[in-house]
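Protocol step 4 of 6.
Sequence for DNA 3'-5' helicase (uncultured Chloroflexia bacterium) entered exactly as in the expression construct, tag removed. Do not edit the line below.
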Amino acid sequence: MVISGERRNVQHRDGMERFRQGLTGPLSVPLDESQRRLVGVVTKGGGAYLIKGAAGTGKSTVLLHAIKSLRRDGVQPKSILYATYTKALVTTVEAAMKRDPFLNSKTITKKTVDAVVWEVAGMTWHSSETVVRDSDNRLVKPLTEAMEVVRASLNPTLRKTFGRLVDKKLSRHYLIEEIERTIIAQDLRKPSEYANLLRQGRITRLTEDERAFIWQIHLKFIGRLRDANLTTWARLRQKALRRVEDGKYLERFDAVFIDEAQDLEPTAMRLLVELCRKPEGGNRKIVLSADANQTIYGNGYSWVSIHPDLRLTGRSHSLTTNHQCTRQIVLAAESYLQGAELEDERVAEHHVYTGPLPIVWPVNSDKNEVTEIERFIRTAGKQLDLAFDQCAVLVPTRNRGKEIASALCLRGVKAQFMIRSEVDLAFPGVKVLTRHTAKGLEFPAVAVALFEQLKQSGTVPEELSERLLLERRVNHMAMTRAMQMLMVTVPGSREKGHFVGLAAPLWLQGGKNMGRNPNRP
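Step 5 output, structure tokens:
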């Protein structure tokens, strides 16, 4: 496999050397002028600030330098909370902070949002309830039981309407998502609140009667979960928020920095805001970073609707220079995202690096996909002088990740599949991660394995367009984890909804004209 394309800056040896030494991350490169100005803005006074920008523009960099500036300039809040969505990003930030004398401090708490939730909710590993995510199949049985209880309580006419909703229009998985991500995640307490809700980020329309049915299902569902000693992360976030609001949890921070805020549910965001101490006569010190088009859930909430202290008019600032991905990767990923954006206006970016065009490679079997991934990794090693540990494979599911890691090992490519809580960036081989786990990480060479997505795409027709938009945003996020070389494997018989936008001239087509220099934008 010969990857053609512009090579002028792709071998930026300073960046490669930093990666080899483990010095990547939000403090590994100096601030540019726009970032430096922004650090100055967000560290002055109180109130909330929002740092916006696409992947690779340095949002986390600005957040950490703002924390450093507060401490270096003598402001030194007594306590600072840095919170973000993924454990992997927290691990990266912790490693960066340990190397900086201003940030290596016990007064700075660095946690995932759910680790904060766990503590505030008063959970221990000996708690009787098992906490599960909304994708866990253990939720299907209590949901089904709740549905049948509601169905049995209805008269024959309403029972028919109810049946059309739960048996034909919405899948079990969608109903669980609706309860968890819409009702519970927004801490709705009355059926009227749900009836009048805009349901941001949800496309499937629900009538007033259908919402009334879902509200009843949700009440019975909670009871069935309790009977089974199960709870969900959405419920736990709600519980943590209530404990803070009711004065049952008293610890507060002088400043709160929230990275990748676009992925947080409203209850989690409200919790973090409430954990920030509000000075008498002053404003809470809160700094957020976010890119709506990187969200892996597609919430689309407005900040002020989440909490009145998040009034960000005139306090939002955009970063426009990409320091992570090559120009070719950014443009190709943006072309794929078109039509799935949550923000209407994408910020025009400047690009520090250029490199080869990304490749989209059609495959016809699981084995064929592994063959092309292995070839890509070995080619990246030769062309960019990369070791296996500088490469990553991103997958839709855990099972596929385990299969690919095992298959690569059998072919002589050291690889390991890593779950969210066990990401080891020091592992001397290829990191195989789910797309969600890779959030916030970066690797010189990335293969995004999407052959399995064809198998996963079937769903109730009413939900299909919504599911496709969400999948495209997740895929876009995965693509932008690549710093220099990117390959995406797709089914040979592509489904239009998933794979539109992977076309020339921004994408090289695998197996076609691979030996010549393609047209470049």
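Step 6, annotate. Residues 1-12, 18-23, 513-521 have pLDDT under 50 and may be disordered.
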